[in-house]
Amino acid sequence: MSTMRDSFQSRIGFILAAAGSAIGLGNIWGFPTQAANNGGGAFVFVYLIVTVLLALPALYAEMYIGNQTQKNPVGALQDACEGVSRNLGKYAGLFGLLGAILMLSFYTIVAGWMLAHALSPLMDLFGFTDAATWLGESSHARNLAFTPVFIILGALIINQGVSKGIERWSSRLMPILFVLLIGLIIYILQQPGASEGVAMYLQPDFSQLRDPMLIISAMGQAFFSLSIGVGGMMVYGSYMKKNANMGQLVLSIGALDTLIAFLAGLLIIPTLFVAQHLGLEVFSGDKLIGGPQLIFSVLPTLFDSMGDIGVYVALVFFSLMSMAALTSTLSSTEVPVAYLVEDKNCSRTKATVLVSLIVLIACMSIVYNFDSLFGLVITWVNTFQLPIMGLFYFIVVGWIWKRGNQLTDQALLASKPSLRLWGNYLRFVCPILLSIVFINVLMAL
Ligand code: PFF
């Protein structure tokens, strides 16, 4: 099938779309709470090292495969595995695709909570207090309403295509997100108690470095944050013109993602100390509260107690979260959509509807079996899916690809010594490092 593929229209559009996928709840919620509870600056330090040594190379490998093959992740991995077995590539691609659906199945539920919390202050402002209360309280009915709403929002963008949908919306939403984040940080840092939070965040407690779990947590966080392992970044790479300078692009995406995670730490941790200053309980034992209780109980209570301005702060904060989540779901939705369009001859609209329905069914299965499935799916995706696929990408780029005849001349075999060094780093060092960390994860289970 050789219909023209849609593509990103500019480098900056591509960077914003990929950064949009990377920057999400993982940055604004996951990173700050992990940092706060794992030695503050020491976690930030380890996170940076793991990101540079392993996560960025994995992102490079993922995007590179997409870019060189110019196909959806299933087709891309099939081509890249040509020299060994196309079937291996096909099943690996489908495994990634399943990961994308699983990732969407829990992420969209949480994103729906964010959206409900963003609408709640808006209802308050318009005087619909009952609706505001309903939106602000966790309920089965709210899940049933807001998970589909969020899926539909994503589907509307995906249906418009790569340049007119993903690129256009990411280019609009990411700058807004940045401005809102900076605005919130400036406001929060002026509140009483905030400086204690800044100190806790930035002062490294290096005694925590002895804990091997720190590296494991940092790696899991880095892979999730950079959206590695479900093919989303691969499909984005495939929409960039072939032989684009992937190294530079990956560095820009990594820098933006890390910057926003770092800035989110400057928002969330000081916010917790402002809350403590106002008498709220923000510690559980010696750890800062980090889970859903932080976002959906402590923060709304804090915003409520801020007086008139609180409702606006809540509106901005949860809008920021919703936007971050929305752009993050686009890349994983694009994986199965691109597969259906390219390999199964579906129209884009039909593929989008079908994928949305599948994601909806997956979400509802979790909503109805929340206690048993929600945590399980998250653990599966974060602990297994992402590192396993990361490892596979290294093996494809470093080993399998070389054996194919189709793409050999493209695949990291350039004669420049610097490139050869980089190729050897991806071939030998990355898979070994990642395997060591992964084995430690398994042993820690
Ligand atoms: N990177 C996103 C975040 O930090 O919230 C999560 C994510 C998005 C993971 C897309 C995987 C993915 F394909």
From TrEMBL:
InterPro entries: Na/ntran_symport, SNS_sf, YocR/YhdH-like
Membrane topology: Multi-pass membrane protein
Record's keyword terms, sorted: Membrane, Transmembrane, Transmembrane helix, Transport
Cellular compartment(s): Membrane
Pfam families assigned to the protein according to its UniProt record, in alphabetical order: SNF (PF00209)
Membrane spanning stretches: 12-30, 42-61, 94-116, 144-162, 174-193, 213-237, 249-273, 309-330, 351-370, 376-401, 422-443
CDD domains: SLC6sbd_Tyt1-Like
Predominant place of localization: membrane
Keyword Transmembrane helix: yes
This protein's name: Sodium-dependent transporter
